[in-house]
Structures are given as structure tokens and as C-alpha cells.
């Protein structure tokens, strides 16, 4: 069913609010409630957020988990920083595609209070002060005037959650209508699927074969296109297959009558995803 996105500084009480929401929904609704969070055994959040690539991977994993769980029946609560407005927009596009409502709960704290709460945690769960300060500086506060940040519920540390208002926002509102970028369209022809499958598979095989004699920085020529795959790093087959599946899903929603463009589009997609 709906998605509830938590947002706030590190150590601002998001997990506590997520737990309160989970208890409330479980007591007041027959729907299942899933909390998707970044916590886990052995996860050093300070190290993750100190490295841009590790942070990007974490955001991607969280988004993928939300995408797997969100549907028209269950409630999903995303417990993470969610401090980048572009990432919140991606989540908004996701719920538009699923055609389910969402809302944002913003846990308001001062940087000083977040730092104090961070210091009170077990050493293994703390952010370094440098990482915490950097995240506070990078934080992009939600704005209810943005459709991806609305409805917005801002709560202070001592505030009680507005359970009724949040419930109304996700149960009594219509889902945002899908647009061209999120709504599935009919495939243009039966031959399109065959071309899509064969061409993307050929590109993958060309990349895998080229990697045997290439080094990072090389450009790989693939059949059927003047575009080249930029090998910025080593890419295993599992990752390539995942990207191929994502591209095929996207292409089914945006079919092209020009089969000759599929190779170009797939190579461009690979380059964008791998950089």
C-alpha cells in the first residue's frame, strides 16, 4: 500500500519514529508493515557515509528493497537519512509507478542535539564527528511545496507523532497519477522483444569478451553501434545481467520502432550506470 519516508539528520530519532509508526499501524490496520532500514550486523555507517561510492551503493540497495516490498496492500516505512532531494524524487517516481500514496516524516533536530545523541550511542554505532558534520552540511531539507516532499510532517524531538494525520495522508489520499515516464505502454511490435533480448545479450557478450584483454580506461567496441562501452572498472557478469534486466524493463515501457537504436541506447545506459 503506501510508503512512509523518514528524513532527518543522523541521530535525529528516525528509528524511534519508525518503530512508533510500525506499532501504530500494526494495532490499527490489518495490513502488514515492513520497515526498510540501513541497520544491520557489521554495518559501519560512519565508514559508509564517508565514502561516496559506498553511500551510493547503500542508497541503491535501500531503494531496491523498497521497490521489492511496496505494493497496494502492505505499508512500507523507509528508515534512513533520505537527505538528498533527488533521491526523494526517485522514491516519488517509484510510488507513482506502483500507484500508491506516500508521505514524508521529517525528524527535526539541531546539529548540536544530533551530535549529543550520537555521542551517547555505543561506540560501534556512532558516526565520527567529521562524518556527522559533513552529512549535516549536505542535508537538503524537505519542502512541502515539492510534490515529492508532500504531504510533509515535521516533528520535534518531544512531539507526539500525528498518527491520525499520517494515516489520513496515506489511506485517504489518491495515489499520484502515473505519467509518461512511469506508466507502462504497449510494446510496439512482437519483433521488438526479440530484438531487445538478442541485441542486449550480444552487447553483454562483447563486453565480457573484451574484458579478458582490456584494462580499466579502455573503450570497448560493440556490434551494431558506433558507441563504445567505457571500462572504468572490472564488471562481473552478475552486475551486467542486472543492468540488462533494468534496461529491458525500461525499454518495455518506452518501446522504439527503430531497432537499430537499441544498441546505442543500451551502451549509453551502461556507461551512465557504471560511472
Keywords:
single chain, 275 residues, alpha/beta, Rossmann fold, 2 domains, two-stranded antiparallel sheet
Give the spatial strand order of the biggest sheet.
Answer: 2-3-1-4-5
Quick one: overall form?
globular
User: Could you name the ranges where pLDDT drops below 50 across 5 or more consecutive residues?
Assistant: 180-188
Task: Determine the strand fraction and express it as a percent band.
Answer: 5-15%
Q: What is the chain-wise order of helices and strands?
A: EHEHHEHEHHEHHEEHH
User: According to CATH, what is the topology of the largest domain?
Assistant: Rossmann fold
Distance between the termini: 34 Å
Q: Characterize the main sheet.
A: 5 strands, parallel
